[in-house]
Write a structure and sequence with these properties.
Its EC number is 3.4.19.12. InterPro entries: Papain-like_cys_pep_sf, Peptidase_C12_UCH, Peptidase_C12_UCH_sf. The chain is of the alpha+beta class and 215 residues long. It has one domain: Peptidase C12, ubiquitin carboxyl-terminal hydrolase (Ubiquitin C-terminal Hydrolase UCH-l3), CATH 3.40.532.10. 31% of the residues lie in helices and 20% in strands. A hairpin with a 7-residue loop joins β6 (164-168) and β7. The longest helix is centred in the middle third of the chain and has 13 residues, at 127-139.
């Protein structure tokens, strides 16, 4: 089913440096950084606050999202409907950062986003967001035509109070619950979900970014 968008932007390259710079420009804490994950078998040496998967269309994700119910009743969980085409990288960043307590600088663009009554409309109309995003997109490799883009960005986050693991995708109808984690577990302990998607498609390029504290 096709989706109507308010506008279209250039896709972001899945580069941790580009993602980190954009996140900081929008107002995320300087201590947060994105890093590449090259294997699901080796745990990163520092706690993982969130994961972003960049992946081509795959049957496992399609089945998963078709059979899972979505809801957005939890006021403490930040999820926003994607209304800007090709900007799923931005939405993944927002879903990561805005679900981490005390990760946003007061008076920043992200602070304004969090305070907005309509967050989707805020993103559509914010000149600052568009300028920061365009700068990040231009820093990457030459963009493919929109019709050639076959990769999508989603993220996994841990709810700060319930320990519920959520899959967040602005293209879905809301957050998708993926089971509970223990108090001592971080988002890395939900990586089996990502492995299922990767294993369902033998061809195509998958990339994984972890959001961590650099200090």
């Amino acid at each position: 089913m096709s989706k109507r968008y308010s506008k279209a932007w250039i896709p972001l390259e899945s580069d941790p440096g580009i993602f980190t710079e954009l996140m900081h420009n929008l107002g995320a804490d300087d201590d947060l950084t994105f890093m590449d994950v090259f294997s699901l078998d080796s745990r990163p040496w520092i706690p993982v606050r969130a994961l972003i998967l960049i992946f081509p269309s795959c049957d496992a994700y399609k089945r998963d999202t078709e059979t899972q119910t979505t809801s957005h009743d939890d006021k403490e969980l930040v999820w926003v409907n994607q209304t800007i085409d090709n900007a799923c990288g931005l939405y993944a960043i927002l879903h990561c950062v805005c679900n981490i307590p005390d990760a946003i600088k007061p008076g920043s663009v992200l602070s304004g986003f969090m305070e907005a009554s309509n967050r989707a409309a805020f993103l559509e109309s914010s000149q600052e967001v568009e300028e920061f995003y365009d700068r990040a997109a231009q820093d990457g490799s030459p963009a493919l035509p929109a019709e050639a883009v076959d990769h999508h960005y989603i993220c996994l986050v841990k709810h700060k109070r319930s320990n519920q693991l959520y899959l967040l995708d602005g293209e879905m109808g809301g957050p998708i619950e993926k089971g509970k984690l223990e108090d001592e577990e971080d988002v890395w302990d939900g990586r089996h979900i990502i492995r299922t998607y990767i294993d369902s498609r033998k061809e195509g390029t998958f990339s994984l970014l972890a959001l961590v504290n650099s200090g």
